[in-house]
Design goal:
Layout (H helix, E strand, L loop, with lengths): L29 H24 L2 H60 L1
């Protein structure tokens, strides 16, 4: 079957345009797409809350409260992290000392047995 030049693409094309496989191009800016999506979701949330609360100011106050609660929780967790690290380091140090003592005891026992 012969196709006219109109149905063929530029030089080196194989077959009609509609018969070729279509490859989806990767998005050039996935980070930008993510940011636009997040902004759209925040905008939709603001719109819904402003309708529910009766004003954009009340909706903003409510969202600020949520953000402050999350921020306070994150700071509280970050404050606990150094304490947890110290406890873990102390436990690791104690375990290391016990292991060293056990190795010394095993080595001296082995030495005594070899002398006999």
């Amino acid at each position: 079957m012969r196709f006219s030049d109109v149905t063929r693409a530029t030089a080196g094309a194989e077959g009609p345009i509609w018969a070729r496989s279509k490859k989806r191009k990767a998005s050039a800016a996935p980070l930008v797409n993510l940011l636009v999506t997040l902004l759209a979701l925040i905008g939709a949330l603001t719109l819904v809350l402003s309708i529910k609360e009766g004003s954009v100011q009340a909706a903003g106050r409510m969202m600020d409260g949520w953000i402050m609660t999350g921020w306070t929780g994150a700071q509280r967790l970050a404050g606990r992290a150094p304490e947890a690290a110290e406890v873990a380091a102390d436990k690791a140090g104690q375990a290391t000392e016990r292991t060293g003592d056990a190795l010394k005891a095993g080595a001296s026992t082995a030495r005594d047995e070899l002398k006999q």
